[in-house]
Amino acid sequence: MKLLVVEDAADLRALLVDLLQEEGHEVDAVADGIEGLYRAQNWDYDVIVLDGMLPGLDGFDVLAKLRRTRQTPVLMLTARDHTRDRVRGLDQGADDYLTKPFANEELLARIRSVARRGGLQSEKVLRIGEVEIDTGAMQVRAAGEKLDFTAREFALVELLARRRGEVVSRERIFDQLFEDESDEVDISNLLDVYIYKIRQKLGKDFIKTKRGTGYLVE
């Protein structure tokens, strides 16, 4: 799974990242509510682990603003143990609530639980014309025929398909799919290669280029 951790305490943030990466998850981590909200609104995550007390914008406000546009599963993680705080978090759309200190095993179990509940509500098969994108099986079919896609080609197709009708900037694609590339790699040309390969498989009109802006799947 791809997870976002929003936690201002550096030691705990590092512990959470290590714990979740050891479980095989891809993890992004930020230290304040403003950056956390930006990430949560503009990236696709399976679960967000959100601290309630954050600089810039507290976790409850992050959650309230996020729920206006996104239903990403959220596990609130906070030192607040008052009933009113738990009720506030759940009323604003948290899927679960865990207070500090916590057992690592319980944290992992709760993340799995909210991910399953979120998975029931999220769109697993995306259909665009004759193209069918199965995000669970990581398979793409066109007119019923299964096509071969590399993992990164699939990730790019899924990113654009989930935002169909919206222009996705090259910068956002770089941040989500190419942030692990070496500085020596010409990422701009690499993205052009992936777009070209996908168009070969799905047709030149499947992904439209918006000059100077980004790419669009209608």
From TrEMBL:
It comes from Haloferula sargassicola. The modification 4-aspartylphosphate is found at residue 51. The keyword Phosphoprotein applies. It holds the Pfam family Response_reg. Keywords: DNA-binding, Phosphoprotein, Transcription, Transcription regulation, Two-component regulatory system. Residues 123-218 bind DNA. InterPro entries: CheY-like_superfamily, OmpR/PhoB-type_DNA-bd, Sig_transdc_resp-reg_receiver, WalR-like, WH-like_DNA-bd_sf. This is Transcriptional regulatory protein TcrA. Gene3D superfamilies: 3.40.50.2300, 6.10.250.690, Winged helix-like DNA-binding domain superfamily/Winged helix DNA-binding domain.
